[in-house]
Every structure is written in structure tokens, then in C-alpha cells.
């Protein structure tokens, strides 16, 4: 049990700055009391998640949603709060120029503009000490014939190569794929294979990020995880869950069994070894639920799935698998999944000097009442979509 606790204690789950701001759907973005008005307040809220869970020490930024005059100052502020700046997320999906694409756009002027933004994000990595750039492209087409699918891949590859060459020592970028939305016929990075192929061509500093909400229904995501880990190309996760499309709901909320299966392949593939550099990031929107508790619950869901995955009796499983004992092997797997790990995690938190139930501890802390009272006026942070 000690190793399991050691692995859980060493777990590092990165929360997204944008989860603390207002978010919604095309129909409505509901404002909530106490929502941050700037990146400094977002970091303060993220620090609460780390304070109560003990395993969320970094925050991913999104540019320009988290644009500030002094990024080094922002990183200092984060350190004072006990957190660090994690992945820097580029944004080439909200500018009018990008209607027909960003780095894949037919016009060289627009491609230049988009690539320059990606390069600016590397400057922000330098200023904040972040070692990871996360690249998601909304680029795609809505109608057959709208543009040349192959030429768009050429343009994408050209831009990625420029960004790759700009990366410094110890820096990398993670290429994110997504099946559809906002493009509804062909997306330029639609699946893991496309992302993987571009990353292999570029080199070791380019890896793939698996956003758990970006697949067609029924896709076996843990297979993709196992494959990318085997290839050394799994850079990380954007964790969330969904019932239908890119719903960005709390990770593990819609399908805790799938999250367990994914975390088992992470355990089996050595993904918890810091040397593999797999980043466990949340990418969610708390459209109707309170945001800080939503993040705390999400971190706990990842911890629970991880604990269960670490509980799989690997020797018994390997023995049953090698004997072709189908039901035996499945039973070993399900025993771990059906184990209630909440007492173990509560015990671990107490050993870390934390309250056994982070949700209750946060509710009792009075932090929400404080920010709801303080954060009056000004413009609440959001996606600005
Ligand atoms: C795209 C995405 C991407 C982020 C955005 C907030 O759907 O998953 O990772 O840039 O959400
Ligand atoms: Mn994502």
C-alpha cells in the first residue's frame, strides 16, 4: 500500500485557468458570483484547489484570456500562492482573420499572423518558466471542396516546424487533436493519428495531448493512450468527460469506468514515471456548477481512478492473461475498479496534513463567501467568445 500512497502523493494534476472564469455554450454563458476578473484572481482560486487536495500545484494559462503586462510578475504571484505556471495554451480560434483557418489559412498573411502568435506563446513560456506549449487548432472546413485538404496539411506542417525550431532546451509542444467543432466537415488535426504523424516528423520535443472529449462516440481512448505511451509520444491529457460531444464536463463524471481504464494504461505504460513527462491537465467548463468545488471534485475523481488503477493486481492479471483465462483476467481488473478507494485517499490526505474531505473543507473555509463579497464590479473573466 505504501507504493500506492507514494504514487498518489506524487501525483500532479494541472488545473486550467479558464475553468475559474465564466463559460457556457452558444446558447448562454451564465455568470456566477465571485468569478475572477483577472489572471491573478484565477491563480488565487487555483491555489485553493491545491491547498485542499495537495496534488494540483500548477495552472495552465490561455493566451490572450490570461494576457498580462508582466508575465514574470504573474509567475512570481503564482509562486507566492504556492502554485506554478503550467502549460501555455495558444489561441488561434477567436480572431476574425481565422474564419477560414489560422496556420492552414489559404492566405499567407493570416498564416504568418497565426504562427507569430504561437511564437509569442513560446516567449511567454520563457517569461513564466513554463516548459510546455499546448497547441489546439480549430482549423477545418465545413463543406467538401471548400479548400484543399492536402495543402492545408502542408501549411500546418510548415507552421509547426517554425514553432518547433523556436523551442528552447527543456521545452516541448503538445499537439491536440479534435474530431469536429467548430469545423463540421473536416478538421485539420482530427485524430490521434494525424497529430502523431506530425509529431513524429518534427522530433522528440513534439508530443500528442489526448483530450478525452475529442473523440467520436465509442472510440477506445485507452488504446490510444497505450499506443502513444509505447511510442513515447504521449505528452499529456486534457481531462474532462462527456455524454455526447465535447461537453467539457467534470472528468470521471460521465464515465468513471473509462477514466479507470485510461489510468490503468497510464500505470501499465509507465506514465506515472516523471521521466515520461506525461502531463495530467484538466480542461473543463463549469457552466452551471460552482467552479472551485467543480475543480476540487474533478481532481478527486482523477485521484480515485488513479488509486483504483494502481490497485490492479498486475501479477494475477498477467498470469490470467497468459493462461487465456478471459473471465479470470477480467475479474482481476474489475476487482480493482470495484474497490472503494475513498477511505485510502482520506487517510492519505490526513497523512499529508490535509482534511480527509476536500469538498467539505473548502465549503467550511469561507473562501467563497470572501470572494463573492470582494469581487464586485469589474468584468468577470470568460472566454470572450
Ligand atoms: C478545444 C480545447 C482546447 C482549449 C480549449 C479551451 O476544444 O479542448 O484544449 O484550447 O478547449
Ligand atoms: Mn482541450
TrEMBL record:
It comes from the Bacteria. Residues 69-241 form the Xylose isomerase-like TIM barrel domain. GO terms for molecular function: L-rhamnose isomerase activity. It holds the Pfam family AP_endonuc_2. This is L-rhamnose isomerase. The keyword Isomerase applies. InterPro entries: L-rhamnose_isomerase, Rhamnose_iso-rel, Xyl_isomerase-like_sf, Xyl_isomerase-like_TIM-brl. NCBIfam families: RhaI_grampos. Keywords: Isomerase, Manganese, Metal-binding. Its EC number is 5.3.1.14.
